[in-house]
Amino acid sequence: MNPILIDLDGTLIDSAPVVTSVLQETVREELGQEHPRDYYLQFIGPPLMETFAFLGATDPVEITRRYRERYERVMLDTKPFPHMPEIVERLARAGVPLAIATSKNERNTLRILDHYNLTKDFRVISGDPENRPNYTKADVVRDALDRLAESGVDTSSALMVGDRIHDIEGAGRWGIPTVLVGWSHAPQSEFDQAWGRADSVAELEQMLGDFAIGKLVAKL
Questions:
Q1: What are the DSSP calls for the chain, one per residue?
Q2: Chain segment 120-167, per-residue pLDDT in tens
Q3: Which among 11, 3, 1, 2 has a CA at the least distance from the CA of 168?
Q4: Which of 57, 136, 180, 214 is deepest in the core (most CB within 10 A)?
Q5: 193 with 175: CB under 8 angstroms?
Q6: How many CB atoms lie within 10 A of CB 189?
Q7: Which CATH number among 1.10.1760, 1.10.150, 3.30.160, 2.60.120 corresponds to the domain 16-77?
Q8: Measured in whole angstroms, how far is the alpha carbon of residue 134 from the centre of its chain?
């Protein structure tokens, strides 16, 4: 079956309430800026260091470290989107090779997946293993593909499921099309650049199932 790569924040889990709260606190305390929580919805998905650089941090690496200290205290309050765990489980049981491909710290990714008993459904879990400043979404996708291939999966036809332009561009670097989920906070301009769009979990499950068995062909 064809492999499917799935983003974490904003795609599989609803990280917005926790992430926006921690971003608001971090930016207020470290950068002296005050914005309403809704302002931070635009930063769900993009790499943290890119976000803090955009917000004017002179040392995005250090601000990211402080953000993560705060985030790790509350990250298990994050919950999966309704019905997404069931979709992942059904796809895995059907034999679809699944991989997590996220810019989130890999250790924290594993903690969240373990907390919701989702780790078992993924053949590969790829994130940022060392909080590296220049580790991009394209690097994450490449790592996920390489590890899938090492496990014997044919990665010549793969699909990315995400919520932002970084997923589209990161997967596109390796010729992989992306489906954006309709519950994303992405602007329409980002949806316009995606190969496909799924506005409901039922639509997403049908699309992924058809792709996995070759019934649906996705190409850039």
A1: ---EEE--BTTTEE-HHHHHHHHHHHIIIII-----GGGGGGGSSS-HHHHHHHTT-S-HHHHHHHHHHHHHHHGGG-EEPTTHHHHHHHHHHTT--EEEEEEEEHHHHHHHHHHTT-GGG-SEEEEESS--TT--HHHHHHHHHHHHHHTT---SS-EEEESSHHHHHHHHTTT--EEEETT----HHHHTTSSEEESSHHHHHHHHHHHHTTSS----
A2: 999 999 998 876 767 899 999 999 999 999 999 999 999 999 999 999
A3: 11
A4: 180
A5: no
A6: 8
A7: 1.10.150
A8: 17
* Verdict on whether the full-model pTM lies above 0.85: yes
CATH entry 3.40.50.1000 includes domain 4-14+79-213: yes
208 to each of 98, 161, 163, how far by Cα in Å? 11, 9, 15
Residue ranges, CATH 1.10.150, the chain: 16-77
| From-to residues of CATH 3.40.50.1000 in the chain | 4-14+79-213
Q: Tell me which residue of 218, 99, 100 sits closest to 156, measured CA to CA.
A: 218
